[in-house]
Amino acid sequence: MTDLQPVFRALGDPTRRDILRMLGDSPMTIAQVSDNFDMTRAAVKKHLVVLSDGGLIHVEKRGREAVNTLNAAALRPVFDWIGTFDRFWDTRLDALKSAIEKDAANDTGYDTGYDTGKSND
Amino acid sequence: MTLDMTLDMTLENQMTDTAIQKSVYLPAPKTRVWDFLTKADLLGNWFHPAQEDLAEGEDYLLTSQKDGDRMCWGRVEEMSPHDYMKWSFTVGPMEGVMTTVEWRLADAPGGTKLTLEHSGLPNNAEAYGLVLALDKGWHGFLLNLHDMS
């Protein structure tokens, strides 16, 4: 897993964490989750989509219903903060390096004082 | 060619200190790298956009480009342009636990050496209410954690 943002995003919301706790007790349909939360099905559905994007739940079709199940394995990185942030910062610093390289390449009028001679690559 | 920058990432896993340290060489002067660390729009080019340019003593908030959700936040505790900056730092799933992120910039041949240190990371999952609250749906390793407490 290289990008942990979807997991962070999914877990960042207290309602979504509550939904996860409930799904930890037993798998539920959207209707069952809605009953427990006093929320519209549409609002619950939105949260479930974010949780699914983060890989934190599995959605399984059973007949006409979709049953949502906690995927506990996806939570593992969140409890390994060192490993999690190790990858988190690798990704971010790679992105910073790319952004700065692009910036240096575009900004030709900017005197960096460096050799910006053409590459033969 | 001389601008062939090497990406030199080092990781220190110190079990006692729980800090991560990484360095990267960037082909730009310190002043420009500083902008990428402190300007609201430039932060969005590689991290998440900030609500405002970062300022010493002020809270900062980085939000998702996708939907504006809060992603990372804390306070700029110290700023010494263009050499050093210290943040308190957290993300949503940490449920309010603050850690420390320090940025150090140094002149290097052809650009800047940027060093990141992320410290104060708890190595004990018990520190998080989320773990305790999830324990019914938890299989295996969480039970082991509870056995140790």
UniProtKB/TrEMBL annotation, chain A:
The record, for InterPro entries, names:
ArsR-like_HTH, HTH_ArsR_DNA-bd_dom, WH-like_DNA-bd_sf, WH_DNA-bd_sf
Which intervals of the chain form a coiled coil?
Answer: none
Q: What is this protein called?
A: Transcriptional regulator, ArsR family
| A Pfam entry, by short name | HTH_20
A molecular function GO annotation: DNA-binding transcription factor activity
Report the transmembrane regions from the record: none
Which residue range or ranges hold the HTH arsR-type domain? 1-90
- SMART domains, from UniProt? HTH_ARSR (SM00418)
TrEMBL record, chain B:
Q: What Gene3D superfamilies does the record tag this protein with?
A: 3.30.530.20
Report domain Activator of Hsp90 ATPase homologue 1/2-like C-terminal positions: 28-145
Against InterPro entries, the record matches this protein to:
ASHA1/2-like_C, START-like_dom_sf
- One Pfam match, given by its short name, reads AHSA1
For this chain, the family text in UniProt reads: Belongs to the AHA1 family.
* Protein name in UniProt: Uncharacterized conserved protein YndB, AHSA1/START domain
